[in-house]
């Protein structure tokens, strides 16, 4: 993992590079109160959305309020910046479910409307 200010993690926690397994991912989204994903949707996350779109972040409720989400987000943003083309700033997007919005705002994300609007197909 890129340098991620490991001092900000509580004792006993380690950031790992990569993605959780599909069952872990599906369970974590559900436990954290995020919109559900099927196993087939979860399987596509690592191969289709690493660069410039943060597909999902979730911290299990038993481990929330310890700065873990902030540490993971900062590490992801550092990785994107490291791997982005040198010319210009990377365009980083995400869709924020209610529980994650304060974390994203704290880290510089702003609503994109009216310039752009996130949309989903129902």
UniProtKB/TrEMBL annotation:
It holds the Pfam family Acetyltransf_7. One of its GO terms (biological process) is UDP-N-acetylglucosamine biosynthetic process. InterPro entries: Acyl_CoA_acyltransferase, GNAT_dom. Transmembrane segments: none annotated. PROSITE patterns: GNAT (PS51186). It comes from the Eukaryota. GO terms for molecular function: acyltransferase activity, transferring groups other than amino-acyl groups. Residues 1-122 form the N-acetyltransferase domain. This is N-acetyltransferase domain-containing protein. It comes from Penicillium arizonense.
């Amino acid at each position: 993992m890129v340098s991620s200010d490991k001092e900000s993690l509580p004792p006993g926690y380690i950031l790992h590079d990569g993605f959780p397994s599909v069952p872990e991912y599906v369970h974590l989204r559900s436990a954290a109160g995020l919109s559900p994903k099927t196993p087939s949707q979860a399987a596509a996350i690592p191969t289709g959305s690493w660069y410039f779109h943060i597909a999902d972040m979730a911290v299990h409720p038993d481990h929330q309020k310890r700065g873990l989400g902030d540490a993971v987000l900062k590490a992801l943003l550092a990785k994107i910046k490291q791997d982005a083309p040198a010319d210009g700033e990377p365009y980083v997007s995400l869709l924020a479910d209610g529980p994650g919005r304060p974390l994203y705002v704290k880290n510089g994300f702003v609503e994109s409307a009216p310039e752009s609007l996130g949309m989903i197909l129902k």
